[in-house]
Amino acid sequence: MFRTIIKTKLRAIRRVLSYDWATYFILGPVMMGVAFLLGRKIFKDFAFGIGRIQPVSLSEETVVRLAFAFLALKIFFNFLPLARRLYPTERLLSVEDLLPIAFNIRYKVFYFEQLFRDLPFFAIGTILLIFFGKTDLLVWPFMIWFFFPGVEIGFTLTWIHFWSPNRKRLGGVLLILAFLLAFLPVVQLSWWADFFTILFVPLGYYKGFKVWRYTDMGRVAQFFVGHENRKNRAKTAALLRRVCQLVPKKVRPLLQRDLILTARNFVPHLWRNLVLVLLVIFSALSWRQIDAVVYCALATFIIASTVSPLFQMQRPFRMMDAALPLAAEHVWRAKLSYARLLALPIPFVFWGIEVALRPLPWQESLNLLFTLLLVGIAVSSLVGGSICEGDQRPVLQYIVAAFLCILATLFIALFNPVLFLLLFPVLSSLKNSAVIRIENEGSA
Amino acid sequence: MRLSISNVTKRYGDLTALHPFSMDSEGEICGLIGNNGAGKSTLLKMIVGLIFPGKGKIALGDLDVKKMPETVKRHIGYLPESPLLYPRLTPEELLFYVAEIKGIQKAKDEIAYWLEIFGLSEKRNALLNDLSFGMKKKIAIASALIGRPALLILDEPFNGLDVATMESLSEIILKRRADGATIVLSSHLMTYIDRLCERVFILKEGQLVAEGTPKALKTRANQTSFHETFLYFTKVSS
């Protein structure tokens, strides 16, 4: 039975790959390769040379701690998507839900699926290790990748089975994880022993307890809907509507909708991105050899990039927009405004950190705020503006946006703030390209 | 507003989804019927401007659907066959969203009216995710009706509705017709097609096989029920 299911799934994957082979086998690898090579060039020869980024030497302990942090965050933020896929509360029943397939077989199938889904995460980890010259650690992402689905699935299933999912409790677990990561004696750990322990413990655990039960479905359903009462819902919507008064009338309803959806967890990526921004803030407090402008650009990029999964997740619902009297340009402008609005506080946060840690004369302080604001606006605009690039795949859009953002940051922060003006022709070109793509999507 | 469709075709690679099709209609209820895959939804989507015809022209009044899609859509209310509504919005928010994009002034009263008509006033602040299929369908119908558009395109409007709502929807359709709107609807429920439509178009594999008033079609097929009439035309043509 296991083989039949895997064979069918592989057939489906093969079809997807054969339709989009150019994206997966040519465009994707070319963009990844170019991103890597150019990124390294910019990082090592350009930014180091000018002195905005001093060489950062990461010790093995730091790398391990960072790796633990990201793995823990991945488990935590994968809780909702995994729960959605494991229990059919927010999705239609799949054929596997209806067939008499034993849960241990479904678990194994799920494990394999998750292995494929986790591949990009570990591939990026590998690239980062090469980027920072930690080639002696390259074997680890590969080994962790094998057991990691068991840990993720095990955590989600166990939590749902033994405790009703609750956002506050999950937040508490995240804090405990953060505490452990900060104080865990990672250098004393033996990697090989850990590898085998973590590989077999989830499997043995599942064999023993078998916690994937449909009777848990009610708890999951409650978790997805029960966190906000109707009164609060109306209040939040009214507040967001007020925020949207800042944007032009034609874009307003779209932006209102996007913000309401974000507040209601339609895009759980927002929480993940917020935690990543917190990590950047923590880095800004700890590693002072990197300029505040660089941190600001990075944090702005992370938070503004929430727009990409939002746009992708809205794809099935865009039929409704297509039937409304809505210009493609307004769809694009709404996403641009969304990215800018989300990233609005970031420059002020990093300016605050800088002023608090390094007392500056007021002229210099204002100058820094001005530069941070320009960088913040440029980066968020480029992330929002490039929303239709990358063939609706967030990863490809991130690469395009990252290039543009690196250039914008370098131009504004290192050469001359007047170069901010270059943003306008770039945005105009991105707009024209987006309008064509959105119109084509509607009338294919 | 007059809906004019002249010699419209649609091909997907080797498959001809719709052979040349023409119709003119103003202020009447037109029914589009046919078996699954007959090309009904394709034609309806082309009228709304969601897909463009390979050949031919569709116009609403003087407005060409292909050249001025935005302006045309202001006058159209469209209910797709399987409406997908944002699960994390409330009915009221969704209707406000539609109303604002359509540029409807004082939408609050109209939204309250449609929610009342469909018996969903109490659910106005519930998430769409928590509503039943039928309730979601009612919201989708309300979003098509909002702003009282001159052209209503309803793709399988009765699917998934309870009997009482089907009856009230029939009344709403007749009322919109009395107000001068043009209505094009597709359905597999022949009773409603017979009762509501003034003209019926029967499609088979993308081709128009019969057209006329329900009464005239029944006479031509020598049948008393419209159900049998439909089977007669779809069999005869093969």
Layout of helices and strands:
The complex is a heterodimer of chains A (about 450) and B (about 240).
Chain A: H1 2-19, H2 21-50, H3 60-77, H4 79-86, H5 95-98, H6 103-131, H7 139-162, H8 167-183, H9 191-209, H10 217-225, H11 230-243, H12 252-263, H13 269-286, H14 292-304, H15 307-313, H16 318-322, H17 328-343, H18 346-357, H19 362-385, H20 394-415, H21 423-442
Helix pairs in contact in A: 2-20, 3-8, 4-7, 6-7, 7-9, 11-12, 12-17, 13-14, 14-17, 14-18, 14-19, 14-20, 17-19, 17-21, 18-19, 19-20, 19-21
Chain B: E1 3-12, E2 15-25, E3 29-34, H1 40-48, E4 55-60, E5 63-64, H2 69-73, E6 76-79, H3 91-101, H4 107-117, H5 133-145, E7 151-155, H6 163-178, E8 182-186, H7 190-196, E9 199-204, E10 207-212, H8 214-221, H9 226-236
Parallel strand pairs in B: 3-8, 3-9, 6-7, 7-8
Antiparallel strand pairs in B: 1-2, 1-4, 4-5, 9-10
Report on this structure:
The complex is a heterodimer of chains A (444) and B (238). Chain A has 444 residues and is mainly alpha-helical. Chain A folds into 2 domains: 57-224, no CATH class; 228-442, no CATH class. Chain A has 21 helices and no strands. Chain A has helices at residues 2-19, 21-50, 60-77, 79-86, 95-98, 103-131, 139-162, 167-183, 191-209, 217-225, 230-243, 252-263, 269-286, 292-304, 307-313, 318-322, 328-343, 346-357, 362-385, 394-415, 423-442. The model of chain A has no long low-confidence stretch (mean pLDDT 81). Chain B has a domain at 78-148. Chain B has 9 helices and 10 strands. In chain B, strand 7, helix 6 and strand 8 (182-186) form a beta-alpha-beta unit. In chain B, 38% of the residues lie in helices and 26% in strands. Chain B is of the alpha/beta class. In chain B, the strands form 2 sheets. A 6-stranded mixed beta sheet of chain B has the order 6-7-8-3-9-10, sandwiched between helices. The mean pLDDT of chain B is 90. Chains A and B meet through helix 11, helix 12 and helix 16 of A and helix 2 and helix 3 of B.
